[in-house]
Design a protein that fits this description.
Length: 326
């Protein structure tokens, strides 16, 4: 394949991947899906019915518009929230989904929620540090919108929820939260209030549908992001098992996500076999990667280790493949 054709293929694949990412965000931003996320990831909503939670979401969630970096997050968006950012060195960086909810209490407490979809748990930097940074940015960006001067009591609590769709096996089917907690240095306790509880980071690690909870958030998201189920099966499960009404908009977005997913993984698989390079591999399923390794071993007479290296599969993941390549 000549350079021009390779470039055209890369651009086409990038465009298709971008459309898939956008479709995933659109599906996740449906209020009923966000309500499930809130019930399982936001402590304040644990005891509420999912259908009731939908009514507590303010306005329409903003998708891929509000900035992360300084000086761009304070532009007015939903209920005073913005979702895009840029910097000279890093380019335009946006939150996947950001919105606010109002707790149905006498105080009418407002929470700010960020939801991110993350494919790789090894993106080349410590993912949890990025997660904490996003949460901190949403907290600090409230200045001038939720409070001014020294009115820190008006700060709203923030949740940033990250959905990892392809975690390593040791992390699969887990939901792990991180928060600011007091610890004793001298004395028995702090002053007893929760004013420090201003930010929560939650990481949802998906896995195999059959290994997760049977009627909770993990299975719901695993069904949505499954590459084995077509859009008809996904919509049936959402409707029959989760009582999610398939509006025309949600129906269209689920179908679009499935169609784009099929194209991406088929292209990634074919390119990996034909070219023996890493294009599309990192996001490929473990099963698809295994087949690519076997094909390289057969066609190029490579050892298992050399094939794994050629496909740029991280060495800390080799133990997942080597026993199956003997």
């Amino acid at each position: 394949m000549d350079t021009e054709n390779v470039l055209a293929a890369d651009i086409g694949a990038a465009g298709q991947k971008a459309r898939y990412d956008a479709a995933c965000k659109n599906v996740l931003s449906a209020k009923i899906i966000l309500a499930w996320i809130l019930k399982f990831c936001v402590e304040e909503f644990t005891d509420y019915d999912v259908n009731d939670i939908v009514g507590y979401i303010e306005g329409d969630p903003i998708v891929s518009e509000v900035g992360v970096m300084p000086n761009t997050t304070n532009t007015e968006k939903i209920s005073g929230i913005a979702n895009e950012d840029s910097s000279i060195n890093e380019g335009r960086i946006t939150y996947d989904i950001i919105f606010s909810v109002i707790l149905p209490t006498e105080e009418r407490i407002k929470l700010i929620i960020n939801v991110e979809a993350q494919n790789s748990t090894h993106p080349g930097y410590p993912l949890k540090k990025r997660i904490v940074y996003y949460g901190c940015r949403i907290v600090s960006a409230q200045y001038g919108r939720e409070f001014e001067n020294a009115e820190y009591g008006n700060l709203k609590k923030v949740y940033t929820v990250w959905i990892c769709t392809s975690p390593p096996e040791r992390l699969q089917n887990k939901i792990i939260g991180y928060s600011i907690q007091p610890y004793r240095i001298i004395g028995d306790t702090d002053d007893g209030n929760n004013d420090h509880d201003i930010m929560r980071c939650v990481v949802v690690y998906l896995g195999k549908e059959e290994d997760g909870d049977k009627n909770g958030l993990l299975r719901l998201l695993e069904v949505l992001f499954s590459r084995e189920k077509d859009h008809t099966e996904k919509k049936r499960i959402l409707h029959d098992e989760y009582n999610i009404e398939m509006t025309s908009k949600l129906d269209e977005e689920v179908t679009e996500m499935c169609n784009l997913s099929d194209g991406i993984w088929t292209n990634a698989y074919n390119e990996g076999i034909e070219q023996g390079i890493e294009q599309g591999i990192e996001q490929g399923e473990a099963k698809g990667r295994l087949e690519m390794v076997k094909n390289l071993m057969r066609s190029l007479s490579l050892t298992a280790e050399k094939a794994l290296e050629t496909l740029c599969i991280p060495k800390n993941e080799w133990d997942n493949y080597l026993p199956k390549l003997g």
